Amino acid sequence: MPELIVRGTVVPDTFITVDSLEALASVSARQDVLASLAVWQAAPEALIKRSARRGLLLAADADPAAAKAFFKHLDLLAVSFPSMTDGRGFSLGYLLRTRLGWRGELRAIGPLVRDQLQPLARVGFDAMSLRAGQDLHAALASLRDFSAPYQASADEPRPLFARAELEHTHV
Fold it and tell me: Do the beta carbons of residue 55 and residue 35 sit within 8 Å?
């Protein structure tokens, strides 16, 4: 069974990916299903009825607002990164967390590498898969590479100078 990093721990990935109605029909009842936006739009009732846990997979060029209608039925949202050099998934993750208010698991899927884990976490991803052959346990260390980020982001909306000012006014 493949593994991924979820909230700083390596865990088995129990979800199967479904990208068509034909693939959905072959899913046995009560499996964890990660379905494409097109499948969710075509057959939401079937996904809700068949799946133990449900996820929605957004392509890098998808409109993240299209997923909002399904939020109440989802256990996770996943963003597909077509390549490690395609940064659109970072923007989608940030928008899902900040503007659309997604609070559940947000998973990055694709040929990602260890050096991308920290930036993924900064924009709101709390689950990540990596390129085949990457040591997930070793990659976990990258989530602790920086003790205090300077910039504001989804994981810390205040930049370092604002956090420092706040700390000094409470002394």
Answer: yes
